[in-house]
């Protein structure tokens, strides 16, 4: 199945000059979505994770069903202030300023083998920060993966772990 045929491209969103790759149309097509999850499992399984982490918010859509399919737990990586209970924050640099992500303090056990997932890899900043955050908890990030990679932004270069993707776009 050609998964790219199910990715809608929306020009000038969220601002002029940006071409947005929308997975809503992929999610709405059950055979394509099923094929996506099956292919993601093929990417992730060789890393032998014990838990999958999804980055807010579309990463949840990838990681939660994949965790279920693989019989693994799922952990949410959220923006500051969005998770209940005690959390561990990690602040990282953006092009203009900083951002903070966090996970619940007891989200993973020390030594857990974590794979971090999102829908799309652009500059790699948030994906790299999520890896560092799990390191603070004593987990081992064994890989990261997305459905889409924007190769022209070279986000893969920021990652310190193996990375896999299903689809690439060069512009």
Summarize the helices and strands and which ones pair or pack.
Elements: E1 8-11, E2 19-22, H1 24-27, H2 30-44, E3 51-55, H3 58-70, E4 73-79, E5 87-94, E6 97-104, E7 113-121, H4 125-136, E8 140-150, E9 163-169
Parallel strand pairs: 3-4, 3-7, 7-8, 8-9
Antiparallel strand pairs: 1-2, 4-6, 5-6
Helix pairs in contact: 2-3
Shape: globular
Major β-sheet annotation? 7 strands, mixed
Straight-line distance between termini: 22 Å
User: How big is the Rg?
Assistant: 15 Å
What is the CATH class name? Alpha Beta
Regions with pLDDT < 50 over 5+ consecutive residues?
Answer: none
What is the CATH-assigned architecture? Answer: 3-Layer(aba) Sandwich
Task: State which percent range the strand residues make up.
Answer: 35-45%
Sequence of secondary-structure elements? EEHHEHEEEEHEE
Number of domains: 1
**CATH fold call:** Rossmann fold
Q: Tell me the number of helical segments per DSSP (H or I, 4 or more residues long).
A: 4
Number of strands: 9
Description of the molecule:
It is a single chain. The protein is an alpha/beta fold and 171 residues long. The chain has one domain (41-169): Rossmann fold (3-Layer(aba) Sandwich), CATH 3.40.50.2020. The chain contains 4 helices and 9 strands, in the order E-E-H-H-E-H-E-E-E-E-H-E-E. The protein has helices at 24-27, 30-44, 58-70, 125-136; strands at 8-11, 19-22, 51-55, 73-79, 87-94, 97-104, 113-121, 140-150, 163-169. A hairpin with a 2-residue loop joins strand 5 (87-94) and strand 6.
